[in-house]
């Protein structure tokens, strides 16, 4: 039976404001691909990201460029050659995973070779701001086991210290989103060490992170913007201790699973991350959580409303998706 592809742009309000070093936003704008073969329907969601040269319009156009192939029966391996890594391929790849699972009646995790999915503990993100505002937000979230602190460069030691005072028991991850300079490293690393930070994410700009290779790293450093898919992964071994795998960067679950396997082979720890999206975007990433040392799938927790049905969050524990959502 012939396939049909439907593309939709949807908007979900954020609870308050989500702010990182590059700016702030008050809504998540997502692009959803739905593929139906008349018997089953699969869905995938992506979040276009301006940092990677993406917009809603460009991602929608890229998905549309694959329409003929998708409707003619393109499978996941073929899709990898049809579109580059990025948000557009992610939506289509995850929709094909979902379609395959529903068509054959086998959960996506078993198609991927996993016995089952288990609940995972996700980090909860504290947006960057004045130290006092971040401390207030951290105090409200202090009972959560893992907090991820967004940073911005100047003033970061004060932000780190303020959050630690407000949440003395939480494990802390800091994420500079490329905002640090090489001259910042010593002072910022010292502030992180004093606060007992467990991981530092992307301190220097991608492509200008050579200094990390010559730095004694008392705290593990994770690549985010510096790594998208398997290409170039090996060259990062002297700079990073972990890699943040996001499906919107890898171009879907297919490449994400391959990237995780290569990263493990090369000795990297695995961090499973996300853009700010709905439960439909988080669900496929749950297939990576069992092999991850750090999980950050809190997108729906940052929204004023999520999809229905969505993932079930019990505090910071995120449960596997039901087939009605995905997979």
Please explain how this structure is put together.
The structure is a single chain. This protein has 327 residues and is α/β, with parallel strands linked by helices. The chain has 2 domains: 4-105, Enolase-like, N-terminal domain (Enolase-like, domain 1); 120-318, TIM Barrel (Alpha-Beta Barrel). The chain is 30% helix and 22% strand. It has 11 helices and 14 strands. An 8-stranded parallel beta sheet has the order 5-6-7-8-9-10-11-12. Strands 1-2-3 form a 3-stranded antiparallel beta sheet. A 3-stranded antiparallel beta sheet has the order 4-14-13, with no helix packed on it. Helix 1 packs across helix 4 (87-104). The longest helix has 18 residues, at 87-104. The chain is globular. The model has no long low-confidence stretch (mean pLDDT 96).
Short recap of the structure:
The chain is α/β, with parallel strands linked by helices and 327 residues long.
Helix and strand topology:
Elements: E1 4-20, E2 23-36, E3 41-46, H1 56-65, H2 67-71, H3 76-82, H4 87-104, H5 108-111, E4 120-121, E5 124-126, H6 131-140, E6 146-150, H7 156-166, E7 171-175, H8 185-194, E8 199-201, E9 221-223, E10 242-245, H9 247-250, H10 253-265, E11 269-272, H11 279-285, E12 294-295, E13 313-314, E14 317-318
Parallel strand pairs: 5-6, 6-7, 7-8, 8-9, 9-10, 10-11, 11-12
Antiparallel strand pairs: 1-2, 2-3, 4-14, 13-14
């Amino acid at each position: 039976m012939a396939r049909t592809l439907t593309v939709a742009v949807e908007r979900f309000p954020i609870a308050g404001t989500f702010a990182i070093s590059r700016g702030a936003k008050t809504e998540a704008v997502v692009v959803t691909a739905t593929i139906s073969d008349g018997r089953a329907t699969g869905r995938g969601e992506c979040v276009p990201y301006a940092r990677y040269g993406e917009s809603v319009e460009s991602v929608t156009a890229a998905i549309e460029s694959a329409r003929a192939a998708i409707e003619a029966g393109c499978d996941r391996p073929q899709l990898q050659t049809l579109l580059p890594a990025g948000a557009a391929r992610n939506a289509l790849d995850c929709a094909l995973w979902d379609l395959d699972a529903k068509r054959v009646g086998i959960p996506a995790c078993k198609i991927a070779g996993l016995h089952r999915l288990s609940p995972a503990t996700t980090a909860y993100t504290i947006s960057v701001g004045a130290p006092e505002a971040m401390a207030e937000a951290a105090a409200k979230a202090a009972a959560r086991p893992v907090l991820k602190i967004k940073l911005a460069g100047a003033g970061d030691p004060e932000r780190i210290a303020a959050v630690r005072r407000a949440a003395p028991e939480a494990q802390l991850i800091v994420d500079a989103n490329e905002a640090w300079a090489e001259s910042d490293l010593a002072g910022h690393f010292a502030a992180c060490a004093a606060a007992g930070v467990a991981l530092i994410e992307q301190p220097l700009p991608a492509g200008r992170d050579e200094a990390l290779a010559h730095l004694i790293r008392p705290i593990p450093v994770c690549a985010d913007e510096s790594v998208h898919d398997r290409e170039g992964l090996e060259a990062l071994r002297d700079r990073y201790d972990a890699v943040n795998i996001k499906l919107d960067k890898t171009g879907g679950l297919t490449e994400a699973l391959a990237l995780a396997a290569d990263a493990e082979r090369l000795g990297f720890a695995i961090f499973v991350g996300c853009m700010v999206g709905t439960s439909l975007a988080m669900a496929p990433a749950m297939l990576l959580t069992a092999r991850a040392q750090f999980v950050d799938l809190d997108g729906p927790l940052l929204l004023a409303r999520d999809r229905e049905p969505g993932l079930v969050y019990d505090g910071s524990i995120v449960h596997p998706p039901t087939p009605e959502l995905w997979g």
